[in-house]
Amino acid sequence: MARKMNPGSGNAQGTGPSHHSYKPTAKSRYRDIPMIECSRCGSKENLCRHHIDRNRLNNTPSNIEILCRSCHSKEHKLHDSFNGKSGTVKLTDSQVLLIREDIRSYRLIAEEYRVTKTTISRIKRRKFWKHLP
User: Fold this and answer.
1) Contact 43/37 with Cβ under 8 angstroms?
2) CB 46 within 8 A of CB 70
3) What angle do CA 9, 14, 15 make, to 5 degrees?
4) d(CA 71, CA 125)
5) pTM surpassing 0.70?
């Protein structure tokens, strides 16, 4: 015979905003921000929440901006290019020659020139900058 549960008992009971002990968390507060339109271009499609300070743990409403996917992508590319994380960094021919002769680890070389370890590997294997000796 199945046991009857008393109303209001159990883990799933009384956990919502109408419950007397409900306390909104940061997560619930930022999810309450309506996603109506992109704050930059006005698009109403493909919306997402952007953390202005780039800290995904800071979910205060003042740190959340509603952006469409396109504006969100542009925002991160723009930010990353100012911080040297973009793939737009150009190496000079002389830098490539120095990289090819450098005997340090790929990680250290990549950090110095602000490129990926894969880029360093391709330079050393002459997959990139083939026109150089």
Assistant:
1) yes
2) yes
3) 125
4) 37
5) no
**What CA–CA distance (Å, rounded) separates 110 from 37?**
40
Kindly write down the DSSP assignment for every residue of 40-63, as one continuous string.
TT---SSEEEEETTS-TT---GGG
81/66 Cα distance (integer angstroms): 22
Q: What angle do CA 44, 50, 56 make, to 5 degrees?
A: 150
Give per-10-residue mean pLDDT for the chain (133 aa). Answer: 51 56 57 83 89 84 87 73 52 90 93 88 88 83
Q: How far apart are CA 87 and CA 81, in angstroms?
A: 8
Which amino acid would we find at residue 68? Answer: C
Residue that the structure tokens 């008393």 belong to: 6
Let me know how long the chain is: 133
124 SS3 class = helix
- Assign 67 to helix, strand or coil: strand
- For residue 6, what are its two tokens? 């008393």
